[in-house]
């Protein structure tokens, strides 16, 4: 149920769209109220998301390394086998770089105030 409140002449009218809600036209709740700043909660949630994404990256690249190791030990010879092993070897440096970048981002998120 919405209610319109009578206002004193010369002041702005306020409108409360729902029972118990703060009427429009009043000052919003301050950012740094007595119950704490909402920014700290948002920062902590972001840090947790970044950490979870970094941990997920480590799991995925670990699984890729396991697959690369098992493929490298195949009993296979010839030009195709050599090309295959060369390509497997070329995949390791990007995996290492990706892990390093994920760890760096996690450290930066934790260090931020």
Note down, in words, how this protein is organized:
There is one protein chain. The chain contains two helices and two strands; from the N terminus they run E-E-H-H. It has 113 residues and is mainly alpha-helical. The model has no long low-confidence stretch (mean pLDDT 77).
Write out key terms for the chains shown:
rod-shaped; 113 residues; mainly alpha; 2 helices; two-stranded antiparallel ribbon
Write the layout of secondary structure elements.
Elements lengths: L2 E2 L10 E2 L21 H35 L6 H33 L2
Antiparallel strand pairs: 1-2
Helix pairs in contact: 1-2
Number of helices: 2
- State the helical fraction: 55-70%
Main sheet strand line-up: 1-2
What general form does the structure show?
A: rod-shaped
Describe the sheet with the most strands: 2 strands, antiparallel
Give a short synopsis of this structure:
By secondary structure, the protein is mainly alpha-helical. The chain is 60% helix and 4% strand.
């Amino acid at each position: 149920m919405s209610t319109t409140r009578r206002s004193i002449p010369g002041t702005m009218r306020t409108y409360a769209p729902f029972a118990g809600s703060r009427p429009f036209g009043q000052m919003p709740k301050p950012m740094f109220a007595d119950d704490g700043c909402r920014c700290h909660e948002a920062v902590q949630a972001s840090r947790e998301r970044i950490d979870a994404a970094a941990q997920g990256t480590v799991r995925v690249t670990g699984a890729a390394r396991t697959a690369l190791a098992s493929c490298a030990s195949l009993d296979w010879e010839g030009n195709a086998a050599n090309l295959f092993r060369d390509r497997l070897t070329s995949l390791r440096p990007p995996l290492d770089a990706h892990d390093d970048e994920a760890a760096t981002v996690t450290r930066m998120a934790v260090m931020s105030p």
